[in-house]
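dumping this here so i dont lose it
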């Protein structure tokens, strides 16, 4: 592109494209330099050929965009994270299409932890030593919360994602929404106040603290000590969904559950209504089957008892008849008549039984009884 102006009378005018191209070519004459700053907004994706990040001056807050080819960045094997202080070797360049100034990085050296990251590490160690991050103090989430608290900013995306997930899974859910500051110096105090206000609402059983994505500095309020302590001391369980999945502010460590996204937080705090109804249907069917089995067992037992009672009188009569027959048999066996039937005789003298030969004398008249009759006799 020729960097020639357009002449309007005695005025020379450059187009935006020509102006940007000229500035870009002029910047190319500047030497390569080392720049110190804290890494923020580190962005890298598997399909990108370039890694983008921002260098921030921790003293003044001044920022400088930077970019480095993916291959060179990976070859350094620095495993950089937001908040680290680095020295970047490169040259300034202008992206003509948008007129954006950035530093084209040629090399990066870790200089040390940035002030923010170092302070966060100290605070993290302090709170961990107090037990605020211990798994033993984390509470289970209610299965069927009466009301759900939502503390979020006026960011429509984060609030919409949580509410959509809750209403999709469990339409009858009631949600109390508290919009507050989630970025800037006053954000931590505002979120502490909103958290306390929502927890004080009647019947609130769980609270979601949510915010959409943001840079390292944007998420710093979620790592401030007062907010972390407020989350840990909240009288009801707290679910945090702050930033993206790779972001882990300190409030995530103090929360009872941490969700990777606002949508995931909404799914955590309510059950799936369809699954719940299906489970209730299965339970109702199981109860019905159990009741039928109990009734069948009782009906069978009653039928057996009825049959036993029906047969009891006949069995009793039969047992009594058998007992009488047995007694009659014994009586018959003991009867004198039975003895006579076997060929024996009964001798009487004067109406008394003769049991011995000494009871009679020669010439006595006796009566002899046999099985089929009697006759008289004289003793000789």
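and the seq i came up w/
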């Amino acid at each position: 592109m020729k960097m020639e102006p357009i002449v309007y009378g005695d005025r020379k005018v450059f187009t935006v494209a020509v102006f940007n191209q000229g500035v870009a070519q002029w910047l190319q004459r500047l030497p390569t330099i080392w720049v110190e700053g804290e890494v923020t907004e580190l962005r890298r994706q598997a399909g990108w050929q370039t890694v983008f990040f921002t260098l921030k001056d921790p003293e003044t807050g001044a920022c400088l965009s930077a970019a480095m080819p993916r291959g060179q960045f990976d070859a350094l094997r620095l495993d950089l994270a937001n908040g680290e202080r680095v020295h970047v070797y490169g040259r300034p360049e202008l992206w003509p299409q948008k007129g954006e100034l950035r530093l084209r990085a040629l090399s990066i050296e870790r200089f040390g932890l940035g002030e923010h990251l170092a302070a966060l590490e100290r605070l993290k160690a302090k709170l961990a030593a107090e037990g605020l991050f211990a798994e033993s103090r984390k509470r289970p989430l209610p299965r069927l919360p009466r009301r759900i608290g939502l503390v979020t900013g006026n960011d429509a995306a984060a609030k919409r994602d949580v509410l959509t997930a809750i209403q999709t899974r469990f339409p009858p859910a009631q949600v109390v929404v508290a919009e507050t500051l989630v970025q800037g110096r006053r954000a931590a105090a505002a979120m502490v106040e909103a958290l306390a206000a929502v927890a004080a609402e009647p019947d609130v059983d769980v609270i979601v603290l949510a915010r959409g994505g943001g840079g390292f500095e944007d998420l710093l309020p979620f790592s401030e000590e007062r907010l972390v302590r407020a989350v840990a001391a909240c009288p009801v369980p707290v679910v945090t969904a702050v930033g993206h999945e790779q972001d882990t502010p300190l409030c995530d460590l103090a929360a009872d559950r941490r969700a990777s996204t606002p949508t995931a937080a909404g799914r955590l705090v309510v059950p799936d209504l369809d699954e719940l109804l299906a489970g209730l249907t299965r339970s109702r069917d199981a109860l019905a089957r159990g009741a039928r089995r109990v009734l069948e067992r009782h009906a069978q037992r009653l039928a057996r008892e009825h049959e036993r009672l029906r047969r009891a009188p006949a069995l009793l009569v039969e047992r009594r008849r058998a007992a009488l027959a047995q007694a009659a048999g014994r009586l018959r066996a003991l009867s004198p008549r039975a003895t006579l039937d076997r060929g024996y005789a009964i001798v009487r003298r004067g109406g008394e039984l003769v049991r011995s030969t000494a009871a009679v004398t020669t010439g006595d008249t006796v009566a002899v009884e046999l099985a089929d009759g009697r006759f008289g006799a004289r003793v000789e």
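The mean pLDDT is 87.
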